[in-house]
Amino acid sequence: MADATPQSVLRFEHVSVAFGDTVALNDVSFDLRAGGTRIVYGAAGSGKSVMLKIALGLLKPTSGRVFVFGQDTTDLKEKDLFPIRSKMGVLFQEGGLFDSMTIEDNVAYPLENAVTSRDRKTAIPAEQISGRVHDALRFVELEQTLAKFPSELSGGMRRRAGIARATVNEPPLMLYDSPTAGLDPITANMIIALIIKARDTKNTTSAIVTHRYQDGQLLANFRYNPQSGHLERSNGNGDGVCARTTFMVFGEGRLVFEGTQDELDHSTDPYVSKFKAVKQ
Amino acid sequence: MLDFLKRPILALQDFFFLTGRALRNIFRSPHYTDDILLQMDIIGVGSLPIVILTGGFSGAVMALQMSRALSTYGATGQVGQIVAITLVRELGPVLSALLVAGRSGSGMASELGSMKVTEQIDAMRALGTDPIQKLVTPRLLATAVMLPLLTIISDLVGLAGGFLVASITLGTTASQYWNTAYRALVWNDLAQGLLKPLAFGIVIALVGCFYGLRTSGGTQGVGLSTTKAVVVASVWIFVITFFITQIFVNQ
Predict the structure, then answer these.
(1) Does position A263 have pLDDT exceeding 90, yes or no?
(2) Option in A58, A114, A116 nearest B125 (CB)
(3) Looking at the partner chain, which of A82, A86, A96 has a beta carbon nearest the beta carbon of B119?
(4) Is the ipTM of this complex over 0.90?
């Protein structure tokens, strides 16, 4: 009989990180499986962004092990991490776009980089890059900004361009670091809608770090309808969006909660309650 | 007890680590030729006007200063010799390097520092690019190549500036000036005059990139890194010129 449990995509085993005397992550363990969406809540300085950087291999844990797509990446050298990172898309807090490049060049960067350096076998042909870049920018409704520089765009547009760059090579795992931080509610909801669209159309596993309670609620309860081209409320069991979405809450480097939306709603933990209080 | 030494020693270790990786990357793929050429343009061509100006005036000032001293001994004919030696051995390389440290070293620290605080360096790593290969090695190569060339230009313009002053104030003829200047220089002078800017170029680029990549704490951190890069590179220029001069003086 085939194993019905989805494959582990990102797994932390007792990961701790300290910067000098400051403990940023304290004995964190979790397992994100293929097709799942993980919402990571936490206040500023709770260690949630550090967790993403460790997942990418940008920071090394002080202790514990990290597994990405089943491979232990804890002690891998930088050059050995590149092939693994090419399967991960990341949206940084401010978009992380390169100032000196146009939006078109920014979005083309992951594809061109694969052609010029590593993974030549998996790189797409150079003549197809332009088409892929246009598709990615059309996906985030930013086709008109091809020749612009990041400094000419608004904060929300930079995040959208960042999503286009992160998804252009269609990675199976997407990491979002505070995608709505510093944005007005309308733009923030637009960014979340794009994340839902990327998740549902490209069928990616996603981890979203945020401090906004509403972001998680939208991600857990809405899905993208490709026929209508709009978001619609998930009908519970049928499409399984809610079942595939799990929550974590970080507090001062510790994982204080992990579970489903239902468990989150019924949690009596005082720190978790503070987050839930925001919605009222 | 010796905890206060920990940070500078760790910083020095990081600096040598960066130096090793930047130098090793010169021989490793991928080579970002476009970035090297762009940096050569920014550092070399961009610094040309300021290097010409300061080179010209430093030669002119040397001639002015020396004309008074030499006239005491009735040796004003030797002004070309003195301007040539001081410019080629010391003033040309050091002044050009200080200008490039102030202009390009600070630029590297602030550019890389801004990239660091806005997570562009992290993004670069996440997208499978080694930031040292893409950002540091091209700047290192460009500065190491362009600074000796800038110094040669600075020396030539300085000699011309010296000639202008010598001919106006002392009535020195062109053949007298250029002859004494040419005869004064030996291979030893040219060697140290070119070795120094090569060493300065390497140090300016590495120090600028090092402080840029270590930036933390937002825009204030970028300012701090920029200041540190210029100060440290300038101090190193004087230390290095002392040791290289020491080697060549004993030859």
Answers:
(1) no
(2) A58
(3) A96
(4) no
